[in-house]
Every structure is written in structure tokens, then in C-alpha cells.
Amino acid sequence: MSIKPEVVVMGASAGAIEAITEILSGLRERTGAPIVIVVHMPSAKDTHLATLLQNRCSRPIIEVEDKQPLERGHVYLAPPDYHVLVEDDTSLALSSEEPVNYSRPSIDVLFESAADVFSQLILGIILTGANQDGAKGLREILDVGGKALIQEPTEAHCRAMPDAAIATCPDARVMSLREISQYLNERI
Fold it and tell me: Which segments of the chain are extended strands (E)?
């Protein structure tokens, strides 16, 4: 029997809103593993992304605050201009350290810190995007025994991020957005 993840981390950039909406709107309401999402957004922009996604998702969607505890069944969004890290006590922390891969928040920063804490009990997901942020972090998730999913590049709004993740993590599973949503419903 497959081990269920205790946390899901997800990253996206160009085309993110549509991709994340499709995945989250397909999730059944229940108390599954928490989902932490990094979306590349302009630093000064008040996105209202949590409100937009909440209208399409039955799970509570929260913009991360510093020292926020993870709760089952919740979805957490990185705020603009802050990295999100998972602390040893599994709470979420915010950092204003330098951008990574030209991005703050950075997908790699979240994925690497979560892999350090959750080890094989983590699922990482890379979606559409225009750079290679997340590929290195996804590799780290696989290296500690976690699971990795990548959006099918041919259906991505921008395929650079999925292509980079596939090149770095050829052992990850490549799926459509609908398949990712089904996978989450079955395994978290």
C-alpha cells in the first residue's frame, strides 16, 4: 500500500490561475493533507487570489502568515514578495531573502524546506510556468523518497517549467490537470 503524503506542495507561474483552479475545483471536500502553493506574482500586486480560488474550491484557502500552523484539509497560498518555508515543527514561515530563480516567492525554496521536514511523506507538483523554478526542489523531493507530479507540458499555458522539471526529474509522473486532481482525490 502506498504511503499517503502528509503535505502537498505545488508551484506554478504563467497560466497558474487557470491550472490551479482546475485542480482545486476537482477536489472533494474532506480533511486531506494540507496543500501549500507558490504562484509567481508581481511583488506589489494585491492579487485577491485566495478569494478567487475560494469561490471554486470547497477547502478553506488561506494566504500564509508567518508561523502559520498547517491544518489538514486547508490550502495555503504564498503571499506576494515572500518566500514560504516549512519549519521543523511543520509550521509555515515567511522570508524576504533574495529572490531565487528571479522569483520571490520561489517554488524551490518551499519544496526544499518541505522535503527537509516531511521526507518521504511529501508530494510535489509542478505546473505551467515560464522558467525553471521548482525543478531543483522537485528533484530534492524525489531524492528524499517523496512523490512528484508534473503537468503535461503540451497542455500547459507555458511549458518551460514542466519541461525543466521533466529534464531534472525523469522519474516523476507526468499528468493532465484532470489526472492530477483525480490523483489527489485518491491519495490525500
Answer: 7-12, 35-39, 61-63, 68-69, 75-77, 83-86, 91-95, 122-126, 147-151, 173-175
